[in-house]
Design a protein that fits this description.
Length: 463
Amino acid sequence: MTSAYRGLPSVERLLADGRVSALTAEYSTLTLTQLARQHLDDLRQAIAAGRPCPPFGEIVSSLVERAASTLTSSLRPVINATGVIIHTNLGRAPLSDDALAAMAAVDRGYSNLELDLEEGKRGSRFVHLETLLCHLTDAEAAIAVNNNASALLLTLSALAQGREVIISRGQLVEIGGGFRIPDVMRQSGARLVEVGTTNRTYLHDYEEAIGEETACLMRVHTSNFRLTGFTHSVPLPELAALAHQRSLLLLDDLGSGCLLDTRPFGLAAEPTPQESLTAGADLILFSADKLLGGPQAGIVLGRRELVSTLRRHPLARAVRLDKTSIAGLAATLLHYLRGEALAKVPVWRMIATPLDELERRTRRWAQACRRVGVSARVVEGWSMVGGGSLPEEGLPSRLLALGGDGALDVKALARHLRTGDPPVVGRIERDALLLDPRTVDPRQDRVLLRALHTALAAASAAV
Ligand SMILES: *Cc1c(COP(=O)(O)O)cnc(C)c1O
């Protein structure tokens, strides 16, 4: 046992090895020393657990690998070939070139983030987005914060803390990652009063629940699932009429923040902020990185005095949006104001891509596979909007299908693709690996094919 420990080299000896000292070109000696210490600690623990001490050469190789895998940013760009346009695990909405340029321009140097250039006095970071948001939606006022969950937390903290919020049981949504909207709401100190049943809630359910303590009625758009069959929910205009008749507020969490009509693409209608305002909601909340197609942010818009109350609340400071996101969101909103969102906002460009264009690209992908001796098929399938919007709504697509004939280990191929450079993520259905061109930027087709080529070679070498 003790002799095994004696096989461990000193930190100095490790650092003196040529392969380790070569790393000083990339990392400081301090960093490498810490890494070598951690590595030796781990080996000591392994020996304590009964394992033998590896030879010196092996210790050096594993240390070099450790440096490569830990001293880099683990967050990397990925090619999304899943066909799910707003994929929460893959970072939701990709941004437009204009949005990226605006973000870089503001980040590279200083900006008038909180300086009124006319007056030379302190300004507010909130003004940069408010005018654009109000133009787009006809709202009186607007504020953008860190994300929609913080928009919800801020709104209820400012307007309903210690009081009651009435919500339908059919709208107590879990948004993914184990997070539930009602739990976020309770964090504000508001008390939720749940009314109706899972499938049916009537106006009189809300009416009977209103009491001295009620601050507002709340609707949460059931964005990521669909309730069908024997169901009833109260239309927004009726909820608004009830709320206002009893001097209460109506809040509407829309989830996705869809500013364009989804129906021309064969999708179901998604409620828009404009419709909610017209229906009488006092404040409307939504994400900026779902169907809006911008950077991560949460938007609240509606009545001016309510937005002012939010702006003055201490939590507004805790959940405020950073300059990078403000710049990116402003550039994204400008695409809508210029009427070029379908062509410029990637999420909408993907939704609007014609089927024949997708088919042409998939055919080219399949040809490239056949050239390296891999049989690939072009199959009919569906892309999804995702991001908790338009559940069950598909867009017809043409997918590249690999395997499914027993000649290829599909799971291994998927793993080689995921761990390649750049990583490519597809989906496996009925034993075939499917790659959907809709969510792949056409400018990345060549990179994708190269990654596919490498993964196919690795996967077939293993068979
Ligand atoms: C996605 C979603 C949220 C959370 O939005 P984030 O921007 O992810 O914080 C809240 N409410 C609804 C209805 C949603 O769909």
